[in-house]
Design brief:
Blueprint: H1 2-37, H2 43-49, H3 62-72, H4 77-86, H5 95-108, H6 114-122, H7 131-146, H8 149-158, H9 171-180, H10 185-194, H11 203-215, H12 223-234, H13 237-249, H14 254-263, H15 272-285, H16 290-295, H17 304-320, H18 330-335, H19 338-347, H20 356-361
Helix pairs in contact: 1-2, 4-6, 6-8, 9-11, 10-12, 11-12, 17-19
Protein name: Mitochondrial transcription termination factor family protein
GO molecular function, one term: nucleic acid binding
InterPro entries: MTERF
Length: 371
């Protein structure tokens, strides 16, 4: 009798499990269908989105209202599909209680048309972060420094954390500290646009970075100061020291490194591999004097494979054929705009040097030096 009861219970549980599985599968299938047919998502995107969203066919109240609301604000099919790909859960939002107040605030503050679409699509946190305690303070703070909404959107593209962080904890105190240390309003604005996340740094890091940059002799009211401060705040002390050691291993003294950093702070923001490969190419392949790099550290920021190597190969070929003089200034090779270089050195000699265009594109002809 006990065995019979056990088998009945087992069969019942198996039936329940199968029923639950079928129900779940049916719900998932409906969700995917809705995302494809009503929201315009490609099937692959819909399958991925369905992992974060479970729509009930029998209680499909919010999604149609959400779509209607978005369309009423001129979101087209492309806008809607991009938004839902990024945050599928928006379909379950309450229109009146959640979406409408946020849109009303943004529109009242000048975010209309493309600005509104870009802001919502690329910063979906704005649909979930607290309106009164997070979003409004963030916009008021940014507006006080950045003035125009285009700058606000540009800043948020670099750091959406501004929409979710409590700005009273770090952002406002950091801004007050920057102003106290002599950084003018326009430079604070430049720092926020350049790297908005820096104003969310912990106070201790901000103070340390400020003192470090000041000790280099940079002036707080200059653009290079905020660029250097931004780079310094992006890395830990360990990472900073590693970058310094990499440069030293390439025969740069610490004084030379810091001199280059003052001229072009981004030099120490690059990866160790980027720094090594760039300096190696300039010194060992192009036989460029190290002092030229120290005086022009921005050269290290150029892409070796996409910009410098193709130009170097073209100039080598043209010099070997005596089509140009061999004493060309390095600035001509490295700094000239892409368009000007192409016109003056590639298309100009393309008929005289078969394969020159391919060489410039990196698909054919290699100079003996590069072979």
């Amino acid at each position: 009798m006990a065995m019979k009861l056990f088998l009945i219970q087992k069969r019942f549980l198996a039936t329940q499990s199968t029923s639950s599985s079928l129900s779940s599968s049916s719900s998932s299938s409906f969700t995917v269908d809705f995302l494809v047919n009503s929201c315009g998502l490609p099937l692959k995107s819909a399958l991925l989105a369905s992992r974060k969203l479970n729509l009930d066919q029998k209680n499909l109240r919010n999604p149609p209202f959400v779509l209607q609301f978005l369309k009423s604000h001129n979101f087209d099919e492309t806008h809607i599909s991009k938004l839902i790909e990024r945050r599928p859960q928006v379909l379950q939002s309450r229109v009146e209680g959640n979406l409408a107040p946020r849109f009303k605030f943004l529109i009242a503050n000048g975010f209309v048309g493309k600005l509104l679409h870009d802001l919502i699509i690329h910063h979906t946190e704005i649909l979930t972060s607290a309106l009164d305690s997070r979003i409004k303070p963030a916009f008021y703070l940014l507006k006080s420094f950045l003035y125009c909404n285009e700058n606000i959107v540009a800043a948020l593209k670099r750091s959406s954390r501004l929409l979710t962080a409590d700005l009273n904890v770090n952002a406002q105190p950091n801004i007050d500290f920057l102003r106290k240390e002599g950084v003018p309003v326009n430079m604070v604005a430049k720092l926020i646009i350049l790297n908005p996340g820096t104003i969310l740094s912990k106070r201790g890091r901000m103070v340390y970075a400020m003192n470090a940059i000041k000790n280099l002799g940079l002036e707080p009211d200059k653009t290079m100061f905020v660029r250097a401060l931004s780079v310094r705040l992006q890395m830990t002390e360990t990472t900073w020291n590693k970058k310094i050691e990499v440069m030293k291993s390439l025969q740069w003294s610490e004084e030379e490194i810091l001199r280059a950093f003052k001229r072009y702070p981004q030099i120490l923001a690059f990866s160790e591999e980027k720094i090594r490969s760039a300096i190696d190419f300039y010194i060992n392949t192009m036989e460029l004097e190290r002092q030229i790099l120290i005086a022009n550290p921005n050269f290290i920021g150029f892409s070796i494979d996409k910009r410098i190597r193709p130009r170097y190969n073209v100039i080598n070929v043209l010099e070997s054929k005596e089509l140009i003089k061999g004493d060309m200034k390095i600035s001509t090779l490295l700094v000239t705009s892409e368009k000007k270089f192409f016109i003056n050195y590639v298309s100009r000699f393309a008929d005289e040097v078969p394969g020159l265009l391919e060489l410039y594109k990196g698909t054919a002809m290699r100079t003996e030096k590069d072979a």
